[in-house]
C-alpha cells in the first residue's frame, strides 16, 4: 500500500488538515487512491528505475503521492471523480480558451475573479493564466524564471487568492490552466542560491562545470535558443568560478533531471500547484528537459519517459488535471509528445506549425502549404487533440516546411526576409504592423511580433481613418478566427483579440521590457474598448460579436466535435482554403478567402443546397462567390453516411 495515513480518527469522523469527513468517505477515497496507484505502479516503477535505478527515491515518491492525494481539497476530489467518469471532457466542442496576463488583464488574481462575468460574456470557459509564480523583476523572462514554485508573485496576490479564483471559476463552469516551468529555475531560486554558494547537493541539481572543456563540448552540438539576445548555452559565474548551463537566458539555470532528487521535487511542486485548483497544466519547454553530451539536447528519449511518468502521477493523484505540452517544433517532432494510445503522454499539444503557416499564408496569399499542414493534422488519430491559436504571448517563428516550399521555387533565406518585411509593413501590399524579435543580421533570421488585429490591418486602417480598409481588416480578422475554429482541436484566443486590440508601443518606455519586442502584443487590456463589445458600429463590437457567433456555432453543431471527420477540399484557386467537417448527418464546408479580391469556387462533388450558418442564406456550391478576405460556413443536413463516402480528392 502506498503512503501513510495522516488522519485523526475518532471512530465516526476523520479530520484531514482541518476538514472533517466521515470514516466511510475517507476509507472510500483511500481505496480509490490505492486502485489508481495499483493501476500504474508497475509501469511507473519500471520507468523510474530505468532512469534512476534508485529504490529509496522511488519509495519516497510513492509516499508523497499519497500525501498530495490525501491533501487534495474535497471539491477537487469530487471533480476528479466526475472527470474520471468522462475522461474525454476536454475534447468537447463546448471548450473555448483564452490566455491572459493577470496584471495586464485585471491587475491581480482578485481582479481576474471580479472580471469573470466578462469572461463568461466572451463565451470562454477555459482561462490560461500566464506565469504568475514568484520571480524577480528584470530577471523574469515574462515570468518564466521562477524563484519560488510555491508562491505567487506578490503584486499578483497569494496562493489563497489563487484558490479563491479557481473555486470561483469552477462554480461558473470555467476551467483554469497555468504554466509549469520544468526546464529551469531562476538564479534567484533557493536551490540556485545554495548551489552558487558551493553546496554540492544543490550544484548537482544544475549543470555546473569548473572545467571549460565540457561546456565547449556541449556547444559543439547544442543549438542556441536566442543567438542574438542570449548567445551560447552556458554562463560563467565569477563568484563561484563555475560555468552553469543556461539554455535560455543567463538568469535561467537548467535543471539536471539526471538527478532523481530534481525529478521528485519538481513532481511535488507540480502536485502542490494541481491541488490549488488547476484543470490544465502547461509544461513549458518540455523537449529541453533532458541533457546528454554529444547530442542536441532536444527531444531525447528520456524526455518522453519523464512526461509519461508525469501523466501517470497525475492520473494517480489528480486525474481531473490534464497536461498541455509546449513543443514549438515541426509536426514530426511534436506528435510523439502525445505518446501512444496505449501509453499516452500529453493530453493536448499546441498546434504551432499551423499557426505560423497561417501567417505565412496571410503574407503570400497562397494556401497550398496551409492545406498540406492541415492534411497532416487531420490524418492523425482522433485521440490526439491540438490547441489551436492565431496569436499567443510569444513571437511567431518561421518554422515552415521549407522542403516543400523549395519544390515551389521558394528559398528559405529570401522567404524569411520577405515575411519579416511584410509583417513590418515594409512591402507595398502589406497591411500589417509588427516588429521583429531576436533578429540575427548574420543569418537574416528573425521572429515576428504583433497582435492579430495589427497583423490583419486593423491598426493601419484605424491610423489612416480608412473606413473601407477597416471593413476589410475586420472581415479578415474574423475569417482567420473562423478558419481556426474549423480546425481539429480546441480554439484558444489571446486576451484582447476578442475586441481587436492593436499593438501597445508603450513597452519601449519600460527599461525592463524595452529590449523585448514581444511586449508589443502583451499590452494591458483596454477596458475602455471592451465597453464597445456590443456596439456593431465599432471594430471592437464587430469582432467581439463575430467571435461570439463563431463560438456559439462551434458549441451547438455536432460536426465541430472531436469525433468528426475533417478534410480539406480542392478549391481550384490557391487564394482559397476549404475545410470540410462531417458527423452523423451534418456536413459543414468552410471556405476562406486569403486575398483582397472576390473569388469564386465550385464544389461539384457536394451537390444540393447548403445554408450559410453565419447568415442563414441558402446556396448551391456552384460558382460560389467569396468576398475579399471573407468566409462561409456552409451546412448541409444529410442522411447518415460513412466517412468513406467522401470523395477521394476532397
Amino acid at each position: 500500500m502506498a503512503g501513510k495515513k495522516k488522519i485523526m480518527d475518532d471512530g465516526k469522523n476523520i479530520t484531514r488538515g482541518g476538514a472533517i469527513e466521515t470514516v466511510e468517505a475517507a476509507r472510500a477515497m483511500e481505496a480509490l487512491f490505492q486502485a489508481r496507484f495499483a493501476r500504474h505502479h508497475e509501469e511507473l516503477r519500471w520507468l523510474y528505475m530505468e532512469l534512476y535505478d534508485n529504490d529509496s527515491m522511488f519509495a519516497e515518491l510513492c509516499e508523497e503521492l499519497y500525501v498530495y492525494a490525501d491533501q487534495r481539497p474535497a471539491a477537487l476530489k469530487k471533480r476528479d471523480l466526475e472527470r474520471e467518469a468522462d475522461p474525454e471532457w476536454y475534447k468537447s466542442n463546448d471548450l473555448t480558451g483564452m490566455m491572459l496576463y493577470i496584471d495586464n488583464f485585471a491587475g491581480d488574481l482578485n481582479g481576474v475573479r471580479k472580471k469573470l462575468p466578462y469572461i463568461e460574456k466572451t463565451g470562454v470557459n477555459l482561462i490560461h493564466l500566464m506565469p504568475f509564480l514568484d520571480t524577480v523583476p528584470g530577471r523574469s523572462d515574462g515570468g518564466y524564471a521562477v524563484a519560488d514554485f510555491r508562491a505567487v508573485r506578490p503584486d499578483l496576490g497569494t496562493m489563497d487568492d489563487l484558490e479563491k479564483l479557481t473555486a470561483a471559476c469552477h462554480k461558473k463552469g470555467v476551467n483554469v490552466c497555468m504554466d509549469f516551468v520544468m526546464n529551469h529555475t531562476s538564479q534567484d531560486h533557493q536551490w540556485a542560491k545554495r548551489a552558487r554558494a558551493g553546496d554540492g547537493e544543490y550544484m548537482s541539481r544544475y549543470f555546473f562545470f569548473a572545467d571549460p572543456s565540457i561546456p565547449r563540448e556541449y556547444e559543439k552540438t547544442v543549438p542556441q535558443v536566442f543567438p542574438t539576445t542570449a548567445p551560447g548555452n552556458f554562463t560563467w559565474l565569477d563568484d563561484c568560478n563555475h560555468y552553469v548551463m543556461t539554455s535560455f537566458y543567463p538568469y535561467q539555470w537548467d535543471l539536471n533531471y539526471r538527478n532523481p532528487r530534481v525529478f521528485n521535487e519538481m513532481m511535488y511542486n507540480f502536485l502542490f500547484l494541481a491541488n490549488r485548483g488547476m484543470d490544465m497544466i502547461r509544461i513549458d519547454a518540455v523537449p529541453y528537459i533532458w541533457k546528454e553530451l554529444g547530442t542536441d539536447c532536444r527531444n531525447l528519449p528520456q524526455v518522453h519517459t519523464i512526461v509519461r511518468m508525469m501523466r501517470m502521477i497525475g492520473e494517480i493523484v489528480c486525474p481531473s488535471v490534464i497536461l498541455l505540452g509546449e513543443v514549438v517544433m515541426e509536426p514530426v517532432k511534436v506528435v510523439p509528445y502525445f505518446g501512444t494510445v496505449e501509453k499516452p503522454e500529453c493530453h493536448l499539444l499546441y498546434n504551432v506549425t499551423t499557426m505560423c503557416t497561417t501567417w505565412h499564408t496571410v503574407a503570400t496569399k497562397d494556401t497550398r502549404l496551409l492545406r498540406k499542414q492541415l492534411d497532416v493534422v487531420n490524418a492523425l488519430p482522433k485521440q490526439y487533440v491540438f490547441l489551436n491559436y492565431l496569436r499567443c504571448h510569444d513571437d511567431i517563428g518561421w518554422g515552415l516546411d521549407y522542403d516543400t516550399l523549395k519544390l515551389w521555387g521558394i528559398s528559405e533565406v529570401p522567404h524569411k526576409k520577405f515575411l519579416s518585411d511584410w509583417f513590418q509593413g515594409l512591402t507595398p501590399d502589406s497591411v500589417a504592423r509588427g516588429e521583429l524579435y531576436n533578429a540575427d543580421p548574420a543569418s537574416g533570421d528573425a521572429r515576428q511580433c504583433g497582435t492579430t488585429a495589427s497583423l490583419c490591418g486593423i491598426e493601419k486602417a484605424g491610423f489612416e481613418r480608412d473606413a473601407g480598409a477597416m471593413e476589410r481588416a475586420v472581415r479578415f480578422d474574423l475569417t482567420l478566427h473562423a478558419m481556426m475554429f474549423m480546425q481539429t482541436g480546441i480554439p484558444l484566443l489571446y486576451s484582447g483579440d476578442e475586441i481587436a486590440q492593436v499593438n501597445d508601443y508603450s513597452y519601449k518606455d519600460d527599461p525592463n521590457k524595452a529590449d523585448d519586442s514581444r511586449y508589443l502584443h502583451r499590452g494591458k487590456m483596454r477596458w475602455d474598448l471592451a465597453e464597445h463589445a456590443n456596439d456593431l458600429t465599432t471594430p471592437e463590437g464587430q469582432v467581439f460579436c463575430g467571435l461570439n457567433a463563431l463560438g456559439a456555432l462551434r458549441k451547438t453543431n455536432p460536426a465541430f466535435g472531436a469525433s468528426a471527420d475533417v478534410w480539406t477540399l480542392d478549391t481550384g484557386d490557391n487564394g482559397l482554403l476549404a475545410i470540410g467537417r462531417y458527423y452523423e448527418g451534418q456536413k459543414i464546408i468552410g471556405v476562406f478567402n486569403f486575398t483582397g479580391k472576390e473569388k469564386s469556387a465550385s464544389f461539384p462533388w457536394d451537390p444540393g443546397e447548403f445554408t450559410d450558418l453565419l447568415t442563414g442564406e441558402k446556396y448551391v456550391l456552384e460558382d460560389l462567390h467569396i468576398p475579399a478576405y471573407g468566409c462561409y460556413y456552409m451546412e448541409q443536413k444529410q442522411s447518415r453516411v460513412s466517412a468513406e463516402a467522401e470523395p477521394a480528392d476532397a
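Confidence is low (pLDDT under 50) at residues 4-9, 641-650. The first strand starts at residue 8 and ends at 9.
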